[in-house]
Design brief:
The protein is an alpha/beta fold. The protein has two domains: about 180 residues, P-loop containing nucleotide triphosphate hydrolases (Rossmann fold), CATH 3.40.50; about 80 residues, no CATH class. About 45% of the residues lie in helices and about 15% in strands. The chain is built from ten helices and six strands; from the N terminus they run βαββαβαβαβαααααα. A six-stranded mixed β-sheet has the order 2-3-1-4-5-6, sandwiched between helices. Helix 2 packs across helix 3, helix 2 runs parallel beside helix 7 and helix 7 runs antiparallel to helix 10. The longest helix is centred in the middle third of the chain and has 19 residues. The protein is globular and about 60 Å long.
Length: about 290
């Protein structure tokens, strides 16, 4: 039974628990400390799902994005080719619910237009600290996924309260996402990849590169553009940003310069001198534009 590959994205603000949900789902482990995701991380999980006409061996490629607004170009590049998305809010922080409609959903829809969504309010184990309830997320979700009645098997929903700590509903939310992406009702578009690439490039042009986040966003996307394999690019990117000691939630001008330097060192192993110098000059130009 050949596997069916589907790319999904986990979206939401920093520290809502996206990485912990993936860890619980894939490895059945929980890490009780927050580690900011640099760029995006890709994890693979296989599911065997019974469908009306057959049993499907599904391979989910789960992309965990940096949970910081402002990295618009990097986010847009990652959204290309996404089949579905899981939107995660933190029950103990009201602003993480509001940002789903203010930033994450609009940013996603600019690239992929319409994909099935699963809405998750995480940290259900911290009831005494709730700033909103599951019903608030259900209200948000009601404005999306219209026309998906009957797609999910009985007992599955598009809205869940989860806990990465105790595992509540974690497996089920991914199972729902799996059924939704397998029930895709729109035919593939042969020009979609090109369209998505152009959108990502357009977003990069409009990014405010005078801010530290905007400049780092442009540099990260520019580096990834040199690779056919986004996962390999992200692996190198995370390594060099960590080496530069950059906090992606609050990057400094000096840290951005170090990042540019270290990325140039990484590229020196496979780029010719002309391309290497051109990349270095372009990225240094963005770094120099960052206001103190």
């Amino acid at each position: 039974m050949n596997p069916v590959r589907k790319k999904i994205a986990l979206l939401g603000d920093s520290a809502v628990g996206k990485t912990s949900l993936i860890r619980r789902f894939v490895f059945d482990q929980f890490e009780d400390s927050h580690i900011a995701t640099i760029g995006s991380k890709v994890t693979m999980k296989r599911l065997v799902l019974p469908r009306p006409d057959r049993t499907v061996n599904l391979k989910l490629m789960i992309w965990d994005l940096i949970g910081r607004e402002g990295y618009r170009a990097l986010h847009a590049r990652t959204f290309a080719g996404v089949h579905g998305a899981i939107l995660v809010a933190d029950l103990t922080r009201q602003e993480t619910l509001e940002s789903l409609e203010r930033y994450w959903i609009p940013s996603l829809m600019k690239v992929v237009e319409s994909v099935p969504l699963v809405f998750v309010c995480n940290k259900s184990d911290l009831k005494k600290e709730f700033e909103f309830g599951p019903d608030d997320l259900t209200e948000t979700a009601s404005r999306y996924n219209i026309g998906l009645d009957g797609v999910l098997p009985s007992g599955l929903e598009t809205v869940y309260s989860t806990s990465a700590k105790n595992g509540s509903n974690v497996e089920t939310m991914f199972e729902s996402m799996g059924h939704l992406v397998l029930a895709e009702r729109t035919p593939s578009d042969p020009v979609k990849a090109l369209y998505e690439s152009l959108v990502a490039t357009g977003v990069q042009r409009t990014t405010d590169k005078t801010t530290p986040v905007g400049a780092l966003d442009a540099i990260m996307v520019d580096f990834c553009a040199g690779y056919d394999d986004s996962r390999t690019a992200m692996l190198i990117l995370r390594q060099e940003i960590a080496r530069a000691g950059v906090d992606i939630n609050d990057p400094t001008r000096e840290g951005i310069f170090r990042t540019v330097e270290y990325l140039a060192e990484a590229e020196s192993e496979f780029k010719d001198e002309e391309d290497l110098l051109a990349n270095l000059e372009r990225r240094l130009g963005w770094a120099h534009r960052v206001k103190e």
